[in-house]
């Protein structure tokens, strides 16, 4: 297109010098029409501009197609990622059909304590009271069972106790204290074990519900929230069970403390008796010797009694 632009000044100069509108060029018989030539040049220039415009539009379309291709590629990758995530979630949401058959197992259960040997004996009411305390619990039932089944301790006569020496009084009071502590430990143990056994049926039902939901193939039981709920429920049941076990261990520890106390009391009594013997043996032997000597001297060998 550049040669056409360079000929335009020459063409206009020729037009200005021509004496007529139509002229022959070089005697060839070709007629040069300046008006038509100008129109032709103008159309060629316009065509060139249109071509440049189309070229620009084609470049814009090419860039647009490249962007669309990038969007499509990104969308396709995203779609594959979503499909993969969905397939993984679907696979994780499915429960094995034989899960219960593979892992479900029975567990030990509390049962009521019975003793049929006392059903027709005269002690049936005493045994029933004791077993009710073990099966149902409550401090009232435990005290009633203790009062009926344990030999009661009688009160030491106040006058007789005060007439004893201080060491013997301490021994008697110590034995009474051990008996009172033993009563408290025993009634507490009966009440604790009975309450735990009484609540065991409800606890076993909660465990059965949790086990059923764990092995269920119902999709509503396998959601993330359902799983978290079952984990929290299992944790709470474990805490309650551990609390019951701790109460029993505490009662056993209290009984062991009483046993240790009684053993310590026995050792202390033996030591006190040994100390008392060491302190009073010389005086006792002197009194015994003096008494024997006086008795011998008082014996008369005379036939007359003098």
Description of the structure:
The protein is mainly α. Among the domains are: 40-92; 124-156 and 163-280, no CATH class. Helix content is 76%, strand content 1%. The chain has eight helices and two strands. The protein has helices at residues 2-17, 34-93, 99-103, 124-135, 139-149, 158-163, 166-214, 224-298, and strands spanning 23-24, 31-32. A hairpin with a 6-residue loop joins β1 and β2 (31-32). α4 (124-135) crosses α7 (166-214) and α7 runs antiparallel to α8 (224-298). The model is unreliable at 1-25 (pLDDT under 50).
The gist of it:
By secondary structure, the protein is mainly alpha-helical. It has helices at residues 2-17, 34-93, 99-103, 124-135, 139-149, 158-163, 166-214, 224-298, and strands at residues 23-24, 31-32.
Relative strand content = under 5%
Q: How many angstroms does the end-to-end distance come to? A: 183 Å
**Total strand count, please?**
2
Strand order of the largest sheet: 1-2
SS summary, helix count: 8
Keywords:
306 residues; two-stranded antiparallel ribbon; 2 strands; disordered N terminus
Write the layout of secondary structure elements.
Elements: H1 2-17, E1 23-24, E2 31-32, H2 34-93, H3 99-103, H4 124-135, H5 139-149, H6 158-163, H7 166-214, H8 224-298
Antiparallel strand pairs: 1-2
Helix pairs in contact: 4-5, 4-7, 5-7, 7-8
């Amino acid at each position: 297109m550049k040669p056409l632009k360079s000929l335009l000044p020459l063409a206009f100069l020729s037009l200005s010098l021509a004496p007529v509108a139509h002229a022959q060029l070089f005697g060839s018989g070709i007629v040069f029409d300046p008006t038509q030539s100008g129109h032709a040049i103008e159309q060629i220039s316009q065509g060139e501009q249109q071509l440049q415009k189309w070229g620009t539009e084609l470049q814009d379309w090419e860039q647009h197609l490249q962007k669309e291709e990038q969007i499509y590629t990104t969308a396709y990758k995203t779609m594959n990622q979503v499909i993969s995530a969905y397939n993984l979630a679907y696979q994780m949401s499915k429960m094995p059909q034989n899960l219960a058959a593979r892992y479900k197992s029975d567990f030990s259960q509390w049962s009521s304590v019975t003793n049929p040997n006392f059903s027709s004996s005269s002690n049936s009411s005493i045994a029933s009271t004791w077993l009710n305390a073990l099966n149902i619990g409550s401090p009232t039932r435990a005290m009633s069972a203790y009062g009926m089944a344990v030999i009661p301790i009688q009160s030491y006569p106040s006058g007789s106790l005060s007439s004893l020496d201080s060491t013997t009084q301490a021994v008697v009071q110590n034995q009474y204290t051990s008996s009172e502590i033993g009563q408290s430990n025993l009634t507490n143990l009966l009440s604790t074990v009975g309450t735990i056994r009484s609540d065991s049926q409800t606890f076993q039902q909660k465990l059965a519900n949790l086990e059923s939901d764990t092995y269920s193939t119902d999709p509503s039981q396998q959601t993330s929230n359902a799983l978290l709920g079952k984990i929290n429920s299992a944790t709470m049941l474990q805490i309650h069970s551990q609390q019951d076990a701790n109460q029993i261990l505490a009662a056993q520890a209290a009984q062991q403390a009483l046993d240790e106390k009684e053993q310590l009391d026995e050792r202390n009594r033996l030591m006190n008796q040994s100390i008392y013997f060491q302190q009073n043996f010389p005086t006792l032997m002197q009194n015994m010797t003096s008494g024997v000597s006086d008795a011998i001297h008082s014996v008369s060998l005379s036939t007359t009694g003098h």
